[in-house]
Amino acid sequence: MNPKELSTTAKNTWCPGCGNFSILNAVRSVLADLDGEGYPVEKTVLVSGIGCHAKIADYLNVNSFYSIHGRTIPVATAIKVANPDINVICFSGDGDSLAEGLDHLIFAAKRNIDITLVLHDNRVYSLTTGQYTPTSPTGFKGRSTPDGSVEHPINPVELMLDAGATYIARGYSHGIEQLQMLIRDAVLHRGFSFLDVLQVCVSYNNLYESYNKWTYTVKGNDTASQQEARRIISSWNYDRSDVPIPLGCFYRVDSPRFDQHFSLVRPDVAERERRIDDLLENFI
Amino acid sequence: MTDDRTEKDITDTMGEFSVLIGGIAGDGINEAGLSVSRMLSRLGYCIYMYYDYPSLIRGGHNYSLVRASRKSIAAHSDRIDVMIALNQETVEKHRGRLKETSFVIYDADKVDGAGLTGCGIAVSGILEEAGALPVMKNTCILGGFARAVGIDWSVLEEVLRKHIPKRLEQNLLVARRGYDQADSFCTLPKNPILAQGRLHSPASPILSGNQAIGLGLIKAGLGAYVAYPMTPSSSLLDFMARQAGRFGLAVIHPENEIAVMLMAEGFAYAGVKAAVGTSGGGFCLMAEGLSLSGMAELPVVVVMAQRAGPSTGLPTYTAQSDLNFIASAGQGEFPRFVVAPGDAAQAYYWSGVALNLAWRYQVPSFILTDKTLSESQYSFERGAAGEPVEASPLLWDGSGEFMRYRYTESGVSPLAFPPVKGQAVKTDSYMHDEKGITTEDASITRQMADKRLQKGRSLAAELEGYETVQTSSLHPSRTALLCWGSNQGVCREAGERLGLSVISVLVLQPFPERRLKEALDGVDRLIAVECNATGQLASLVESFGIPVSDRILKYDGRPFSIEGLLSELGRVLA
Fold first, then answer.
1. Minimum distance, in Å, between the CA of residue A111 and any CA atom of chain B
2. Is the Cβ–Cβ distance between B107 and B137 less than 8 Å?
3. Inter-chain CB pairs, A–B, below 8 Å
4. pLDDT tens for residues B347-388?
5. Do the Cβ atoms of B421 and A42 come within 8 Å?
């Protein structure tokens, strides 16, 4: 399948140079490739939250549930439980999943539900014109913190390691080949996949220069080792802009999944009637 | 006590009697009340059981009030014929309920029998001798109760064998000792219950309102139930979780009610019929998801079991104070269905209807109940209010391009669920076009709003074929009682005794204005009976130009008893 077949006629309203274009292009080519490899595109559902990132649902001619702020994961969880053959991919922002919907994110990892979450981590609320988010560094001067944020950022990949995610990786919107590989791996991984994407917002938090200088790709790391993953993950805590920032896959293990525990085979009408009668007999 | 008085009181209460069993939380009072109910049900009586308990795990005072009648009932009586007291507090708290002819079966090791007419059972001694667990004291005293009121041992044995299979032999042993001791020591008039004549109708299942709701939803094709525990809805989650395997349900208890609502909507998108359950505080968290249901046209059933608010309020006590909230929750304008069943049979039928209508019109659908209906026990007359069926929603026929929000005459767009080869199924919380792509276009915005409201009109038109307002009266009367939800039972009984018609409004949205006005033909005085402090149904009815003369309101967390309502009506009608 040509990735262009997955476009819609919706007008793209991201700013020129937005890091979201890279994620869109990477996802489109991954889905097109997978379509020819036994993962037909109609068996993919995209779930997005609210924010600049979420517009991706309108730009892909793929099944989608354009949800509300912070609420991708519960929707995705139910879709997966309802239909285990479907690949469910959430697109979420750092405000979306780490502030408004943090409880859902932790529970997705805790349950190891077989869905993927791509975090468009631009470290700023952009659609509401520039406020600090849970991954903004201390001192971030946003519209709600004109004197600088006094909070420390959350390290979402570390949080996911603690919470039980079974695939954890970080990409960068300026490295599309790596991004494609990580998205593909995350989607094919069976279990909860968390992909943090350093996505540059050119309008409110342009970190291209800093990221270009400090990011590097980890190589040869043992992704089955939680200890090694923790060492890599904690080497950058989202607060500093003067230390190396690791990219790549940090952790990948197999573990029992939430979606394996359901059998939604309902008895037919006659059998259901018989079972209701039996049940009522127990209440006499 | 003389036999004369016994006969007189039985005549007074017209073939019915009430049993109260009380003790501390942890004594198994709810289960003991159910055992009493099951025995009496086996004698052919109709049962209603109210269970009163504070919000704690152990200690505190719990009691079950079992009322048995020859007629179908859905209300409790303040006065009791038999008290089963597992502790002194039960006697102190409920002494005022006793009639001259009433008698008390009590734990002689815990309760001071002086001045009580009745029969003490040496429960502690029996338990000790049998090496039984303390919780078996209620089984023991039920033995005493059965013998004292003249229920055959075989009836109690059957109930215990069926419902208390855990440590059965020991339970049977202590029950039998209690039974024998009552025989030895009791000097009560013989067979006060059987004196009314053994009835011949077969025993009915005894179900709580929540269980009836669960069965109605299952019957109509429910595929998933999602809930976070909150009294008085939690017992529905318990029921669904236990029945999940039997009926192929996905039952999920997620992190909070926000996730609950959104999961139900994920199921709806995938084509699985889902319901959620909660009480007021939990529903507050669901409100954002409710509005999503309105915009994205995702069908969802919400079982909303009211309790006394505001805020945490009285967690284990009843109220009908969330009607206004439910009727208007969620930002923006969108149609919804709201039904408030009055008893278990109606809960069963209307829950199925609620599920079908949610899917036929792709709207949120509420089953509005309260602690009284959700947790009381009823003799379940299946089909008495109707039998739910599984209806299919409007499905896409597969021709042309699939448009999730296609304009139609009824406002309802045909559904498809992923995977569909060659089609993208898109749903959207933003204003969207027919395909489901976000838009801010003024004309589409107006058309889509019209489409959603058109669904509400189509839903209202279908509801013309349902008994959305029910009137009961032996004779037409110019004064009528107006009620909704669990007050239906108590209003019908009070109305019957006073010769007043009772108008029960089952469907609250879309509001059945025409049917209510028809029901009011010939009525010139309407008395609203509600468990809230403002008269929310009365105000709603008045907004349709229907005057309500009086409001009898109860907002202490306790349901109306027959005597309580009769007394209020006496005051209003004087």
1. 10
2. yes
3. 179
4. 999 999 999 999 999 999 999 999 999 999 999 999 999 999
5. yes
